[in-house]
Specification:
There is one protein chain. α2 packs antiparallel against α3. The radius of gyration is 21 Å and the shape is elongated. The chain has a domain of about 55 residues. It is mainly alpha-helical. The protein is about 50% helix and about 0% strand.
C-alpha cells in the first residue's frame, strides 16, 4: 500500500575531519598570530631564470618598491636576511606562510605577513630575464 505523503529526500554533507577542525581552530585562535594554510593545496613555485637565493632577493626588491617608508624597507631587508639565513626559498616561504619566523626576529608583523603571503602575487608580476 502506498503512503499518501510524498517521499522525503535527506541530503547529508560530508563531515569535517577532526584534523582539519583542529587546524581551523588553531588558525583562528588568538595565540596564533599568523595562520597556516593547508600546505597540500599549494603547488611548488619555480622561477626558471633565477637561482633560489636570487629569487628571494628579487622578491625583497619588489616589496621595497611598493613602500616609501625607510623603516618598512629595512624590515623587508631583515625578512630577506632571515629567509636566506634559514635557507628558505620562495616555494618554502609560500608553502609555510609562517610569519612568526620573521616577527620573532624583529620584523614588523604587517611586513612579515606580506612577506609570507604575497609570493604568488610577485610571481604574477615577475618578468623572466630570457
Amino acid at each position: 500500500m502506498e503512503s499518501p505523503c510524498p517521499p522525503i529526500n535527506i541530503n547529508v554533507l560530508p563531515s569535517q575531519s577532526p584534523q582539519s577542525s583542529m587546524m581551523a581552530a588553531q588558525a583562528g585562535s588568538p595565540s596564533t598570530s599568523c595562520p597556516y594554510p593547508n600546505s597540500s593545496s599549494i603547488d611548488a613555485l619555480v622561477v626558471p631564470d633565477l637561482p633560489l637565493d636570487e629569487a628571494v632577493k628579487e622578491y625583497a626588491n619588489w616589496h621595497k618598491s611598493r613602500v616609501a617608508s625607510q623603516e618598512m624597507k629595512d624590515n623587508v631587508d631583515l625578512a630577506c636576511q632571515i629567509a636566506l639565513s634559514k635557507g628558505f626559498d620562495l616555494s618554502q616561504i609560500d608553502k609555510d606562510r609562517n610569519c612568526n619566523d620573521y616577527t620573532d626576529e624583529g620584523v614588523m608583523k604587517g611586513v612579515a605577513r606580506r612577506w609570507t603571503e604575497e609570493v604568488r602575487e610577485w610571481l604574477n608580476h615577475y618578468e623572466p630575464l630570457f
